Amino acid sequence: MTSTFRTLTVPLNGESTPGGLPSFLVRDDVLCWTRREAGLVGFGEIARFTATGPERFLEADIWWRHLVLEAEITDSVERPGTGPVAFGSFAFSKASAHASRLIVPEIVVGLRDGCAWLTQLTFDDGDLTEAGALAALARWQDAPSGDAHEPGVPAEASTAVGHSLAPAAEATLHTGSLSETDWMAAVAAGVEEIRAGKLEKLVLARDIVATVPDGVNAADVLRELAVRYRECWTYGVDGLVGSTPEMLIQVEGRTAQARVLAGTLDRRDAEGMAGSPLEFAERVLAGSEKQRHEHDIAIESLTTALAPFSEAMNAHSEPFILELPNVWHLASDVKAELTEVEGHVPTCLALINALHPTAAVCGTPTTVAGALIRKLEHLDRGPYAGPVGWLDAAGNGEWGIALRGAVIESPETARLYAGCGIVEGSLPEAELAETWAKFRPMLESLGISS
């Protein structure tokens, strides 16, 4: 066995991917990053890095750069996501016991702008050939899924029933760390801290546990999400599954982009209202001082952190309405041209280290909000609201914020997470309702009606 990291990337016949990448989501241990049927899907694992604590991003960055430095790369496609690739998921909090991770798969299928490719990655001796890569892909697709992945956030579900739903297929829901009443009390306490001038915005999350006797099948969940939420980025890494509408950072060459969301409206609220649903969303979201204030805080948080790495930056002067099947959001896209810092363009993980956590998932000031989250939530978020995505050896990558998702904790249980931005005008009952709107994508994908 050799220690040399070697990869082979070859074009893949587009006719072999008629359904796009969702057609490759056939295993519960699949690695996934897809939007509008394009992206990356990974099978197997040849290397893994884990870390905890405040240096987790930089430690992972050093590990990855060392791994690819001496790699033997054969790449006839040369697009973002070809050659060596790792999928990753990072804990939200520097204080979390949850292990952040980078995973290097054995096989990657990619699809971008109508171009499909296949990459095989290995540390073994022997020739890498197109025929061998295709055979390895076939083996992964045909073989049954392996054992369940490492649980993401080990915890025991309480037996208290939460929201009054009508679960299908005998699935049941249980409250997580806080009951609905206790969580609303936490929101009220957060509002009081804001009114006292201790902070400007706070993001509070809550969890629920779904038990599905017929089994929680990650592949089924990912396919459902990829089809229902095409405008979101559907992700699957080691039992963390979901479909996020928020891009923390996307890097292609020297160009970085982000999509910032803050301000949410349940689409069901438009029922029976005058005018079109979109007009209602514009009136309630874009016309709300509270929603605009929350959004402005989130944009300023990102652009301030990104500025030292950028020689030019632009953002929408006005947010737009992002329309999803379950909710509307106020959204803004930010684009920056990266500058050299200490002689080189910053890597994805170096940028994430500077950007995370944004005000969209933590609050502002960050230190004050983070401490208050730990005090009020009674919850280790684990990978929820942390960065999730992929990176390649050329410095390209896409990292979303792990929202609208769940951690599969056992063959029959999944822990779902949702959070809300709290500002001075927030009402606990309205914020609770917003969490249920945000739970809806995962509940639907698990076959639980709401």
Q: Point out poorly predicted stretches.
A: 146-168
From the N-terminal CA to the C-terminal CA, the straight-line distance is: 53 Å
Structural class: alpha+beta
Strand content: 25-35%
Number of strands: 23
Task: Give the number of helices.
Answer: 9
The 3D shape can be described as globular
Helix content: 25-40%
Whole-number mean pLDDT: 89
Backbone CA Rg: 21 Å
* Major beta sheet summary: 13 strands, mixed
Note the quaternary state here: single chain
Characteristic terms for this protein:
ten-stranded antiparallel β-sheet; 450 residues; 23 strands; 32% strand; alpha+beta
How would you explain this protein's 3D organization?
Helix 1 packs antiparallel against helix 7, helix 3 crosses helix 9 (428-445) and helix 4 (218-228) packs across helix 9. By secondary structure, the protein is of the alpha+beta class. The longest helix has 18 residues, at 289-306. The chain contains nine helices and 23 strands.
